[in-house]
Amino acid sequence: MTLVVFTALCALLAAPGHIHPVLGFTAILCVALGSGASGALNQWYESDIDARMKRTAARPLPAGRMDRDSALHFGVGLGAFSVLTMGLAVNWVAAAILLAAILFYVLVYTVWLKRATPQNIVIGGAAGAFPPLIGWAAVTGEVSTLPVLLFVLVFLWTPPHFWSLALFVRPDYASAGVPMLPVVAGERTTRTQILLYTVPMVAAAIAPWPLGLAGAVYGVAAVALNAVFLFYAVRVAMSRETDPALMKPERRLFGFSILYLFALFGALVADRLLLA
Predict the structure, then answer these.
(1) Which of 109, 139, 169 is the last residue of a domain?
(2) Measured between alpha carbons, how far apart are the two ends of the chain, in Å?
(3) Where would I find the beta strands (DSSP E) of the chain?
(4) Contact, 4 vs 34, CB < 8 A?
(5) Domain boundary at 115, 139, 163, which?
(6) 276 falls within a domain
(7) Is residue 73 located within the same domain as residue 107?
(8) Residue 177, pLDDT score
(9) DSSP code of residue 244
(10) Are 163 and 182 in contact (CB under 8 A)?
(11) Distances (CA, A) of 12 to 2, 21, 23, 174, 260
(12) Where are the transmembrane segments (predicted)?
């Protein structure tokens, strides 16, 4: 959720034009509320899975601190409030994209894909790629080439980010019956897929610089960050470790992938501020 809010904020700050600070704050608040609503509805629907997984068993529903009906009403109400506030206070283009992101995460990813296919995180990852579009549209009222590239970047970043985690928490997913790629296709296939998704992700991340959509500050940062990401992805692809407790390359890739997105979007904002 922190990354969702941060990528939306960076896109808002990098977008051409001007938005009143109060409206800008409102837009980012709506993104945060919409993300929270999505998480609440996800946990409402998946409370049975969460109860069987070590890393999620302490969440409010499986731990018995909240009943399912309250979670459902809270999630629906918060989601509706975030979309309506975005539309009335900012613009309806940003509100429509926010609504699409919430519905995609809840209905497409959580309800449909999560338990049905090992490609759940690939297709469902689009939900987490919407925030740059929302932040950009909040300022401009439209979507252009740069935010679309940012969408593609986050979309391609999600599988290596999440599968590196899934590799060392695979027993949790197996015990819960969730068909994550390491459970269904095995560790070697997962490691190969991580590298295969990293290559186009690198291209999408660097593309704004040669296309003239971002300056040298962003370009140099993108090249450096993606070189490190690719290095870790290669290390993961070459690893043959089967003990989750000893999967150091996978843990390093997962940890760096979070820093990577923060730093890359931060570099985009710095680039725009220096060129302004």
Answers:
(1) 139
(2) 29
(3) none
(4) no
(5) 139
(6) no
(7) yes
(8) 76
(9) G
(10) yes
(11) 15, 11, 11, 39, 19
(12) 24-45, 71-89, 95-113, 120-139, 145-169, 190-209, 215-233, 253-270
